[in-house]
Amino acid sequence: MKFGSKLVITALLTASAASVIAEPASSQKQANKAVEWRQAMFQLIASNMGSLGAMAKGKIPVDAATVEKNATRINQLANMIDDYTSVDTRKFDVKTEALDKVWEDRADFDKKIQALINASSTLAEKAKSGDTSAIKSAIGGIGKSCKGCHDVYKQD
Description:
Layout: H1 3-17, E1 23-24, H2 28-56, H3 64-78, H4 81-84, E2 87-88, H5 101-104, H6 106-129, H7 132-153
Parallel strand pairs: 1-2
Helix pairs in contact: 2-3, 2-7, 3-6, 6-7
């Protein structure tokens, strides 16, 4: 099987596994835990983006091995976003930057998740090439997918 075919199959399987239907939190305790886990996952994504952003901006040298490792981690975490945003916490007093739109427009939110999954997969592949220009461009793709979601679903 060629790489392109594997990528298409992976994308289709990922898309079919997505779209967990959000269930309302049943208690304040459940809502608090859901927010805690959700925020922890996004902090891990951010921690892996830090050095990538610095590389893309030329603040530190591009290190293909670090790029591949971080892109793989981001991809793994991106595949968990749907699960960790499946508990609708809107009815409880929780400290969150998530906007209600996360649960109101789930189809679009799922598209944004898929964009991050795709961008991180692309970056991991570009890292293997060692092509600094292609790597920086692919890092930009992840940044664009993050921004696309933050602009709609996260408070400033």
